[in-house]
Amino acid sequence: MRWRAVVLTTGLVLGLAAGPAQASGADETGIIDSTRHGGRTVALTFDDGPNPEDTPRLLRVLRKHHVKATFCLWGDFVEQHPGIVRSIVAHGHVLCNHTMHHEDLGTWTPERIEADLRQTSAAIRRAVPWAPPIRYFRAPYGSWGQSPAVAAKLGMRSLGWRLTISDWEPPGTDELVRRLREGVTPGAVVLLHDGPDDRAQTVEAVDRIIPELRAGGWRFDLPARR
Ligand SMILES: [Zn+2]
């Protein structure tokens, strides 16, 4: 009975991770959702780019504030905008594999997942052959399925999050800033979006929240490597 209860609990955890609100960072799955240094730090991560409008704007904002972030790249857009991928790397940011076509991996076999992740990493590698190895993977929709084990086999850590602010339905920059201000917790990986659609509000919110959080004693970090 005890074993059955554990299985049910794990199923619940994975079910929560698949929802849009918040991923579980359950250690048993190996999914990282914390920063490298902990304490009063946060790690900004951006999904679903590169986006020809907003990713370059975001890069300028991050450079202005001297913040390094992680970009979870959508393979189709990598192939369409390789120059932006080169810019991301040239600015010193960290790359993350976010699959080729942003499909739900929840029911996929390990073989199918591996083929997709390899294809995505190869597309990124073609855009930036000189980039460091891709260390992170994030499943679209937080629907991990069997992907963490596959990613680990390919040398990538699975990257979850502790805070996301539903910026895929832009509610206004003020509201995004409020959600960030009220949602950050020590050591949190924060999920934002620079693609695939208009993310001007996200870029503006990042521009405003960075100095505000810094004034409150927060520092910007990268995701943990464990
Ligand atoms: Zn995504």
Automatic annotation (TrEMBL):
The keyword Cell inner membrane does not apply. Residues 1-23 form the signal peptide. The keyword Magnesium does not apply. InterPro entries: Glyco_hydro/deAcase_b/a-brl, NODB_dom, Polysacc_deacetylase_ArnD. Residues 40-221 form the NodB homology domain. This is Polysaccharide deacetylase family protein. GO terms for molecular function: hydrolase activity. It comes from the Bacteria. It is an enzyme of class 3 (hydrolase). Keywords: Hydrolase, Metal-binding, Signal. PROSITE patterns: NODB. Its EC number is 3.-.-.-. CDD domains: CE4_NodB_like_6s_7s (cd10917). PANTHER family: CHITIN DEACETYLASE 1-RELATED (PTHR10587:SF133), GLYCOSYL TRANSFERASE-RELATED (PTHR10587).
